[in-house]
Each structure stands twice: as structure tokens, then as C-alpha cells.
Amino acid sequence: MKYRLIYILLTLASVITYGQVNLSLDADKTEYGGKDVVNLTIVLELNGTDLVQQTGFQLPDLSKFNIIGSGSVTNTVIDPATNTLITQKVSRIALEPKKKGKIKIGSVLVTVNNKIYKTEPFDVNIRDIVDKRSLAGNTSNEVFLNMEIEDRDVYQDQPTIAVLKVYSRNMDNLRKVKNIRLPQQENINVHPINFTKSEIDPSGNGNMSSQILAMFMVFPNKAGYVEVPGVSASVSTYSNKNKIVSNKIKLNVRKLPEGAPDGFKNAVGNFSVSVHNTTKEKPEAKKPLNVVVKVTGEGNLPDMELPKIVASPDYEVFAPKITSKVSPGASGMKGTIMANYVVIPNKSGAISIKTEPFAFFDPENKEYVDLGQKTLDVNALSHDQVMESRSTVEKVNEYTNNLLETVNTPVLKTTSFKVKEKNKFHWNILLTNITILLGLFVVYLIFKTWQKKRALVNETISQKPLGSVAETEKEIRELLKTDINDYFGYLENLKDNGEYEKFFTTLEELDQEVRNQYFQGSVAEFKTFLEKHKGSSVAEEYARLQQKIQMEKYSPVKSQEGIEELLKTIVNLYSQISK
After folding, report:
1. Which pLDDT belongs to residue 14?
2. Which residue in 206, 215, 299, 438 is deepest, having the highest Cβ count within 10 Å?
């Protein structure tokens, strides 16, 4: 009986362990045309910290296809409900069928904790095969989008930055990607940072070139697991237009802490609130006032609920007009949003115009900040009090304005008389013209003398013996050589002063100067030159540096430490190249 109980427990343990590993292999559809690409998606999900993947994905026999592309991504999140670590590995394979008919896709194998898991085989049907030459204009199968998000563990309504990249074997295809559409979904708010394309990196994944297309902020507005849908774009050619879609990314959105103040709604970041009267005239009962509620700060500013003016029997308030000036910041959208209200006092005397209580959650300090209510005290005057409070000058100005508006006054016209001077001969003008002509003649004689001397110098130089091509090239290179230490000192000053835009502009000038020393026009040509003359390690380090420069240049958040590390790499590499 004792051994039977142990056997039952071991069986249940094996069933539980089996349930913690999920492996699947799916195709995007079951039937394909001749121009279609078969996209296979392999998903391995490990629930728990004690599971170890011992082997990679062992693919089935794909000899009936041409593998035209592949990629993989790993996501790791923690389930807040069960506090379980979930690791998800997704691989995609793009296949081109070699023949038509029904083709069987076999099982994918993987070993986890000394146990082999496999997927179920399935069939795909290929209707026909089209000659590859007819597919020459179809570039969508050679272009791939990839969305990257580093920080996938955020609070509700806290932003995370996404970077969209495009990959292709043919560098020319990258220029054909247009009409980028950012993801739209109810549980996320998306705000673009920029759509500035970076320089093309010829050394991407494998033999594929890459380029950054866009950067944007994602604000998840619900807690739990939130899946960010793929970004779509079009690949335009002269003959057709094809649509491509990037990968999806799952975020772990943490719920905001308990104990929120009464004035908290959905503001996450760091904000301040003010209220003021913009009407220049004295407040008067039954006359409108322009009251502005201003919210300034950084966070989910465009999507949060603004504090409203509380209704009161002392005044009448109308729906506001919202104006905003917002731009991407380091930890969200920063700027100012103003709600312009029209408020009409119902009585004369002291009136307090109050806003709703306002509070926000600060994700940096992980605490709520309660700003309470903001109050604008107004002393509304009656019409008689306004008339009595006017000064003598104001009364005179008002009387004059009323007079000019109601009484028609004649317009007096004056004429100015001018006495015409008699025409006479000016000797000063004649002498000035003669002096100018003599000066031009003297300059001409000096120029002819200089030209003769230069011809003699050129003749003397031409008599010197010519060296070899290598010696001539070396002399020219010495003439073109720039003291890059001056650039290093200037870049150091720009880094210390925080002038990052001028820093990257100067860095481009430095790179151009160094390439000019070796008569190389583009970055790709210079990389090939370095491989031949400086070694493959220097060339690879140069390519990685260019990619790192582009990432830092277009990053919305530039840290002092990151720029300093980048400058050290620049000094070491360019000093080695320019020896």
C-alpha cells in the first residue's frame, strides 16, 4: 500500500510537470498560393523557475521548402496572481515551397529537464508554383519588421518606449517601407516620439541590413498581461504595394498600490496644478471671466483626466476649451495642458472658484501625491461700483471714444509744398568717377604682375621629379590629415555642457574627415577598407560603433553616463584608425 501511494504521487507530479511546459507549432494558414510564403511559428512556454531548456528547437525535415528567413524572441514575465515565472520563447520561420500539392510538416522536438517534448505534425496544401522570375517585384517577403521594448514590467498608465526596426537582405528594400501605422487598442495609449529614420546598418542579424524606422511610447491603461499588437507598414514598388506586420510583445502591467487619495483618477507621473484669471477688466457680476486651469508636468499627460471647476450657486461655469503643448520627455509626455473656462459670477462680492481635488501617482518614488483643491478668490463688483471705481482719465477716454464712434467729424487734408531746385553741374561726382577708374586700372596692373610670377613658380615646380603613386597618395593623405585630438577635446566640452545635438553633429564631421583621409565616401566602403588594411576586428568594432551612435542619437533619453561611455569608445577606435 505504501509503494502504491508513492507511485500515485510520482504520477501526479509528472502530470503537473508536464502541464508546466507548452510547446506548439502552427502555420499562419493551411492553404497557400504560388506567391505565398509559409510562415511557421514555434512557441515554447515554461511556467516555473525549475524548468531548464537543455536543447534548442530540433526542426523537422524541411527539404521541400527554401528557408528564406527566421527570427526568435524570448519574453520573461512574472504572473502577479500566482507569483510564477513564465518564460516564453517564440521562433518564426519563413518558407518558400518548392513544389505544389499536400506537404507534411513534421514535429518540432525540444528537451526540458531531461524530457523530450514534441508537437503534432500537420499538412499544408500548396495550390500551384509560380516561376520565381515573376516574383522579382514582390519585396514584402524579403522585408521584416521587428518591434523591441526593453522595459516590459511597468505600472498601469506608466510609459514604456518601443523601437521599430526593419530588416532586409537587400538594402534598397529598406527605402521602400512607408505608411507606418502604430498599434491601436483599447487597453493601450500610443504616442509617437519620432519617425526619423536612422542610417542603414549593413551589419544586422546575419547577412541582413537593418534600420530604425520609428520610436513611440506605449501607455498601458489596464493591469495584468497586456499584449501590444504589431506595427504595420507597406512596401511600395512600381508594380504593387504589400503590407508587412511586426511581432507582438506582451507586457506585465502592475496594478497601482492601494490607498489612493480621493482626488486620484488616472494621473501617473509628476504634475503641478494652478488656476488663474486671464480677464484684464475688473471682475463684474453678470459679466464673463476667463479662468484657466493649468496642469504642468511629465507622465501620461495627454490621456489623464484633468481637474474640473466645481459647480457652485455663486457662479455659472461652461464647458472648457482644452489647449495643450506636449512633447516626448524622459519618463513620459511632458508639457502643459490648459482648460480655458468661461465663468459668470451670479452675485457681487467675494467669490471662491474651486477645482476638484487632484492627486497623482509618482512611479519613481512609488507613492501617491495629493495636491488637494486649488482656489481662485475673485471680488466681483456691481455695475455701479465699477463706474465709481474708474479714474478721471478712464472716464475721459470713454467719453472721447463714444464721441468718435457716434459723431461724424470732417477729415482735414493738408498739402505740403516743395521748392524744386535748379539743375546744375556737380564737379564732385565727376572727380569721384575718375578716381574709381584710376584705382581699377592700378589693380589690373598688379593682377597681371602676380599672374606672371605664379607662372614662373609653376614652371619651377613642374621641373621637380615625380614620385611613385604610393608616395603621391601618402603626401595627399598627409595634407588631408586632420588633428582628431581637436575633435576629441571639442566633443568632451559638448558632453560636459549637455549639448547633445551639437555633439552628434560634430561626431558626423569627425567620421567624414577620417573617411576622407582614406578616400572612402560611404560608411560601407570604409568598413570594407578597414577589413583589408586594419583587420576584421577593427571593421566589426567600427560597424558596432556606428550602430551604437545611431541608437544614442535617436534615443529620447540621453544619459551622461551613456554619452561618456560612447565618447571613450570613439576616442579609442578613431585613434587606432587614424594612426
Report:
1. 47
2. 299
- Return the sign of the alpha-carbon dihedral for residues 268, 273, 279, 280: negative
Q: 280 and 231 in one domain? A: no
pLDDT in tens, 213-254: 999 999 999 999 999 999 999 887 655 678 889 999 999 999
Sign of the alpha-carbon dihedral angle for 541, 547, 548, 553 = positive
Compute CA distances 374 → 277, 297, 308, whole Å: 13, 16, 10
> What count of other Cβ atoms lies within 10 Å of the Cβ of residue 57?
17
Q: Which of 254, 280, 308 is the last residue of a domain?
A: 254
Whose cell is 508639457? That residue is 335
Q: What is the DSSP string of 271-311?
A: EEEEEEE---SPPBTTS-EEEEEEEEEEEBTTTSPPPPBPP
Residue 505 has pLDDT above 60, yes or no: yes
CATH of residue 30: 2.60.40.10
- Last residue within a domain, chosen from 384, 419, 436: 384
Which band of pLDDT confidence, cut at 50, 70 and 90, is reported for residue 308? Answer: very high
Residue 290 pairs in a beta bridge with 342
pLDDT in tens, 313-345: 999 999 999 999 999 988 899 999 999 999 999
The CA-atom distances, in angstroms, between 479 and each of 347, 475, 508, 512 are: 84, 6, 21, 16
What's the total number of domains in the chain? 4
**CATH number of the domain within which 359 lies:** 2.60.40.740
- Choose between 380 and 129: higher pLDDT: 380
Q: Are residues 93 and 35 in the same domain?
A: yes
